[in-house]
Amino acid sequence: MSLPIYLYGHPVLRAVSRPVDSGREGLKELVEKMYETMYESEGVGLAAPQIGLNEQLVVIDADPVADSFPECAGRKLTLINPEYEILDGEKIVCAEGCLSLPGLSENVARVEHILLRWVDEEFRPHEEEISGFLARIVQHELDHLDGKLYIDHISPIRKQLIRTRLRNIATAKVRVDYPVRYAPKR
Fold first, then answer.
1. DSSP state of 159
2. Is residue 17 a contact partner of residue 41, using CB atoms and an 8 Å limit?
3. What residue spans of 23-179 are helical by DSSP H?
4. Catalytic pick from 96, 106, 112, 141?
5. Taking burial as the number of CB atoms within 10 A of a residue's CB, which of 36, 38, 61, 146 is the most buried?
6. Rounded to an integer, what distance in angstroms lies between the CA atom of residue 100 and that of residue 145?
7. Does the annotation mark 71 as catalytic?
8. CB within 8 Å of 70: residues ≥ 6 apart
């Protein structure tokens, strides 16, 4: 059974996440549940805030998009306490979607080349240069850890044009094929 994904409008998506401690109870089980949730909702990445936890934890399996983006082939990552730095300032515009914003897709400009640092489930440190669409996925998911959504990168005019759709998500007026948790009613 997968975990519910928190949708746009829920305050947990706007909070900054705290680092994961090496002694965190149930980490292995949580990571397994996050992968299961991501697969059942047909995503390629999932950040802990999307399941209601403000912890610096991300799971990615980019292999499903490898036909279009070869750099994603076989790329499955569990990122704990991740951070990145920009290696190439040139931004590429590409459509993005998000499990927390069902039914929406917007063009977002992101850098194409980053240096990613993280620890794995055993708290072993890793560092890797990542490019292309995989770098986009990483940046998208790490935004969640800072309380940001991809729509924060679009123009105010575009945001105004999708305002009704955002309101429908926030007020539970959308149908989703995976378990979700809507924003609390005000």
1. H
2. no
3. 27-40, 132-145, 156-161, 163-170
4. 141
5. 38
6. 13
7. no
8. none
Distance, CA of 94 to CA of 162 (rounded, Å): 18
Query: For the segment 114-144, what is each residue's pLDDT rounded down to a tens digit?
Result: 999 999 999 999 999 999 999 999 999 999 9
pLDDT at 1 over 80: no
5-6 vs 180-181, strand pairing mode: parallel
Question: What does the mean pLDDT of the chain come to?
Answer: 96
Report the alpha-carbon distance of residue 77 to residue 112 in Å, rounded: 18
> In Å, how far from its chain's centre is CA 114?
16
Alpha-carbon span 49 to 99, nearest angstrom: 12
Q: Please say whether the beta carbons of 15 and 49 come within 8 A.
A: yes
Q: Please check whether residue 57 is in contact with residue 47, taking contact to mean a CB–CB distance below 8 angstroms.
A: yes
pTM, entire model: 0.96
Residue type, 15: A
pLDDT in tens, 48-69: 999 999 999 999 999 999 999 9
